[in-house]
Structures are given as structure tokens and as C-alpha cells.
Automatic annotation (TrEMBL):
<keyword id="KW-0333">Golgi apparatus</keyword>
<feature type="binding site">
    <location>
        <begin position="21"/>
        <end position="23"/>
    </location>
    <ligand>
        <name>UDP-alpha-D-glucuronate</name>
    </ligand>
</feature>
<protein>
    <recommendedName>
        <fullName>Galactosylgalactosylxylosylprotein 3-beta-glucuronosyltransferase</fullName>
        <ecNumber>2.4.1.135</ecNumber>
    </recommendedName>
</protein>
<feature type="binding site">
    <location>
        <position position="100"/>
    </location>
    <ligand>
        <name>UDP-alpha-D-glucuronate</name>
    </ligand>
</feature>
<feature type="active site" description="Proton donor/acceptor">
    <location>
        <position position="210"/>
    </location>
</feature>
<dbReference type="InterPro" id="IPR005027">
    <property type="entry name" value="Glyco_trans_43"/>
</dbReference>
<dbReference type="GO" id="GO:0030198">
    <property type="term" value="P:extracellular matrix organization"/>
</dbReference>
<dbReference type="GO" id="GO:0046872">
    <property type="term" value="F:metal ion binding"/>
</dbReference>
<comment type="pathway">
    <text>Protein modification; protein glycosylation.</text>
</comment>
<feature type="binding site">
    <location>
        <begin position="237"/>
        <end position="239"/>
    </location>
    <ligand>
        <name>UDP-alpha-D-glucuronate</name>
    </ligand>
</feature>
<dbReference type="InterPro" id="IPR029044">
    <property type="entry name" value="Nucleotide-diphossugar_trans"/>
</dbReference>
<feature type="binding site">
    <location>
        <position position="125"/>
    </location>
    <ligand>
        <name>Mn(2+)</name>
    </ligand>
</feature>
<comment type="subunit">
    <text>Homodimer; disulfide-linked. Interacts with PXYLP1; the interaction increases the 2-phosphoxylose phosphatase activity of PXYLP1 during completion of linkage region formation in a B3GAT3-mediated manner.</text>
</comment>
<feature type="glycosylation site" description="N-linked (GlcNAc...) asparagine">
    <location>
        <position position="229"/>
    </location>
</feature>
<keyword id="KW-0464">Manganese</keyword>
<dbReference type="GO" id="GO:0015018">
    <property type="term" value="F:galactosylgalactosylxylosylprotein 3-beta-glucuronosyltransferase activity"/>
</dbReference>
<feature type="site" description="Interaction with galactose moiety of substrate glycoprotein">
    <location>
        <position position="247"/>
    </location>
</feature>
Amino acid sequence: GGDDGGDDDERPLPTIYVVTPTYARLVQKAELTRLAHTLALVPALHWVLVEDAEEPSALVRRLLEGSGVEHTQLHAATPSRMKLADSDPRWLKPRGILQRNRGIGWLREHRAADTGAVVYFADDDNTYSLELFEEMRWTRGVSVWPVGLVGGLRFEGPVVVEGRVVSFHTAWRPERAFPIDMAGFAVSLSLLVSHPQAAFDPDAARGDLESSLLVSLTSAEQLEPRARNCTEVLVWHTRTERPKMKQEELLAKQGKGSNPAIEV
């Protein structure tokens, strides 16, 4: 906690609520397995997994039950007009908006009394250092740090002078209110509770999704820099390539496709 006089270890650890939007696809179970293993190593953590679906899936339920991570399984279906077509580039429409908002709504409704808690929006394909969670744990308002391999750069992140965020290292539309990646900030739950209208805007312009939540919660001057004044990269915006299923399709045509009863 930095300036808390070193008494952090005598207080109960604030809970970190990790909100993860997810959707059914070939790599989903692999992605969630890897993330579950990371989260299982973090104390005082509650995983809020929100499926983009009309109803919760058995695959995700079984994965959560076997994970050893304290969890809540939610769902919110994205309407088709907001969904990417297979041929669309990934940046065309932001994903996971309704799912993150569903997670925020659940926290306001069921965890408002958990005043010291922190909320982090963790996509299922990023890579997270365990140190990151301890950096965010004592967030009072909104804490920030750099994110590796994002925005066409080695890293994006806040520029800190004398403990304050003065600008942002980013190449793309630097004039944005908060040019911060989704993985680059955490919010105190009490701040979300005291601003009941704060949410991600489904109609936000490209790159403005994070700002659409943060502008109603804080200002750049109030941001709390973490990760050694934003000089350490503790999270990476890794991407998993889509598996090619050419052989699967060929075998299926011959009636020899993979056994559908075996979960992948």
C-alpha cells in the first residue's frame, strides 16, 4: 500500500473481483484454463466470469467448479447487430461490453458492502503476472500501470512525473480522455457503487471504451500510478491465433470427424 505506514499486512486483504467476459469458441476452454491457473494463485480473489450467451454453459460451469477459485458465473448475450462477422477485423467493434457491464451490475447489487474491494477487467487471452494483483489490491480510486504488446507498441502506459500521471505513452489518438487499455487499470468497488450510472458505453467510438467508464469516475490527475510509477510491465495483451480446422472439415465430410462427445 506504499504510504499506508506498513500496516497493510495487519488488515484483512481487500478482495479483488476479476470480471472476465468470455464467449464460446474452439480455444475458450484452453484460455480459461490458463487464466484459472493464474487466478488460483492469488489470495482474496473472486472471479466473475460473464458468458456472451443466452444461458450459462456446462463447459464453463465445470471449469469454474474444478478451478478452486471463488467464482460467480453470469451471462449476458450480445445482440447480433453488435457482433463481429467472421470476416470483420477484430478492432471493428469492441467485444465484451455488455458482459463487463453485467459484472459491474452484479457487484453493485450483491457486493456493495465490500467497501475495500477492487474491480479488474481481465480478458481471457491476456497474460498476467501475479505481481500485478498485489499492485492493484490497495486501490483507493482508480489505479493504472503499463500494458505490454498493445496499440502497435512494445507497451502503452501512463507517463508519471513526481508520482502523478501527466500524459500517456500511446501512438493511437493520444488526445483520448484515457488512452488506457482495458488491462491497464483497476477501480475501487466503492467508486463504482457511488457512481451508479457509470458503465462501458456500447456505442463508444473505437478506442474510447475504457474512457467511457473512466470519465464518470475520475480524472487523469487523480489516477494512482502502480508498478514502480508505471515503469514495469506486469500484463501483456497476448493474442491466441484461431485454430485452422481444414482437416477436421475434410474428415467430417468422410464421416470420420473428431468425436463430438470429447470436450476440447
